[in-house]
Design a protein that fits this description.
The chain is of the alpha/beta class. It contains 14 helices and twelve strands. The chain has one domain: Divalent-metal-dependent TIM barrel enzymes (TIM Barrel, Alpha-Beta Barrel). The radius of gyration is 22 Å and the shape is globular. It binds L-rhamnitol and zinc ion. L-rhamnitol (RNT) binds next to strand 11.
């Protein structure tokens, strides 16, 4: 069954009514739409291939406590397929897009190039694609899916030779991110996430953390010719992973300490905390001390941190916090989830559109009004207005945003994905 498109007249008419309703509360819907449209969201390439990467090494399955489950047909297995799929997804998502790639998406031809030898030229195809489509790139060194990560330790590894390999990879990654920045005329985020940790109680939780500080310091010292305005470094904490249930070296406290004493910024992944712990309350705390942070937009379920993002309370709370703290321009936004059990392009689109919805929803918050009620001690008035906002005609503003952005309104994007699936994905081996 095809989805019935809404006539443009109907979208505009509904929008005008919504605009008046929001204006009565002091909210400018036109402004919310233009602001949402200019805030960049980085699309993660790894949703398209189940975090597999393009290295030829056999057994390069994801390790390090992250895992994409499912075997829905049509997975991308070459760089060209992945870029085509991403572009298809991007065309169905409103707003300003960036693309986020990992080091193991290097294209090195027939020669295999190990991670510590990677250079910007190994990402030439990504950079050309980026330029052609006006989609700036972000970068991530890949500290998993590699024989030297098999023990579960990388930058905190006790073996100096192994540790130095990963230090060289980290430094090489910063050079690549800087090359991206030069290519695209805007900074590139270089996000460090390492899997290091242990399944059960370590006898020594201390030495790996001491080594990890030293490793990062060496990475930054070794690549100190890289301009930190162009390559923006972030470090991503985690509470536990699959196989590292008891101990993760790069914990939240660890990285908070590191970023408060070094020039890099923290990355908060929405799925990297205790299952009942959300990140929204952390934003106003960390941003007192740091100018910026990176958010990995994700959705945890039980012990998995990376389900497809949905327009849920958690997501709304994050964006409302940023709006209420006037901090939307102090965060970098990047998607991070992977689901191999459904159409992967639909997964991208669902998660990215949900994120765009949360952003727009937050921009329609009557922040001034709510905060003045609170200042006057009118707690009931504040709560009543917060509740009232939940039944405002948000949908009409969202539809108008999609229309203005020239992306499908309503569910019609799904027909495009199904058509692409029939034409392209089903034909893949
Ligand atoms: C893993 C981290 C990390 C990865 C990607 C692939 O728990 O969230 O960000 O998901 O780098
Ligand atoms: Zn993440």
């Amino acid at each position: 069954m095809k989805n019935v498109p809404l006539p443009t007249d109907a979208i505009n008419e509904a929008y005008l009514a919504a605009k008046r309703a929001y204006a009565d509360l002091g909210v400018d819907t036109d402004k919310a739409i233009t602001t949402a449209a200019r805030i960049p969201l980085s699309l993660h390439c790894w949703q398209g291939d189940d975090v597999h990467g393009l290295e030829t090494r056999s057994g390069s399955e994801s390790t390090g406590g992250i895992m994409a489950t499912g075997n829905y047909p049509g997975v991308a297995r070459t760089g060209d397929q992945l870029r085509a799929d991403m572009l298809q997804a991007a065309q169905l998502i409103p707003g300003t897009k960036r693309a986020n790639i990992h080091a193991f998406y290097a294209e090195t031809g027939r020669r295999s190039v190990d991670r510590d030898k990677l250079k910007p030229k190994h990402f030439a195809r990504w950079m050309a694609w980026s330029k052609k489509h006006g989609i700036p790139l972000d970068f991530n060194p890949t500290f998993f899916a590699h024989p030297l990560a098999a023990s579960g330790f990388t930058l905190s590894h006790p073996d100096e030779k192994v540790r130095q390999f990963w230090i060289r990879h980290g430094a090489a990654s910063r050079v690549i991110a800087q090359a991206f920045a030069d290519n695209q005329n805007s900074p590139s985020i270089c996000n460090f996430w390492i899997p290091d940790g242990a399944k059960d109680f370590p006898a020594d939780r201390w030495s790996p953390r001491a080594r990890l500080i030293d490793s990062y310091d060496q990475i930054f010292a070794r690549s100190n010719h890289v301009n930190s305005q162009r390559c923006i470094d972030s470090v991503e904490a985690k509470l536990f992973g699959i196989g590292s249930e008891e101990y993760v070296v790069g914990s939240h406290e660890f990285y908070l300490g590191y970023t408060l004493t070094r020039p890099c910024i923290p990355c908060l992944d929405m799925g990297h905390f205790h299952p009942t712990e959300a990140i929204y309350d952390k934003l106003s705390a960390i941003l007192q001390f740091k100018s910026h942070l990176l958010i990995h937009v994700s959705r945890p379920i039980r012990w998995d941190s990376d389900h497809i993002v949905l327009f849920n309370d958690d997501l709304r709370a994050v964006f409302l916090e940023l709006q209420r703290g006037r901090a939307l321009d102090r965060v970098f936004l990047a998607l991070d989830f992977f689901d191999a059990s459904v159409n992967r392009i639909a997964a991208w689109v669902i998660g990215a559109r949900a994120t765009q919805q949360a952003l727009l929803y937050a921009l329609l918050d009557p922040t001034e009004h709510l905060q003045s009620l609170e200042r006057r001690g009118d707690g009931a008035g504040k709560l009543a207005l917060m509740e009232h906002m939940k039944s405002m005609p948000f949908h009409a503003v969202w539809n108008k945003y999609c229309l203005d952005q020239n992306v499908p309104v309503g569910l019609t994007w799904l027909d495009v994905v199904r058509d692409y699936e029939a034409r392209v994905l089903r034909k893949r081996a």
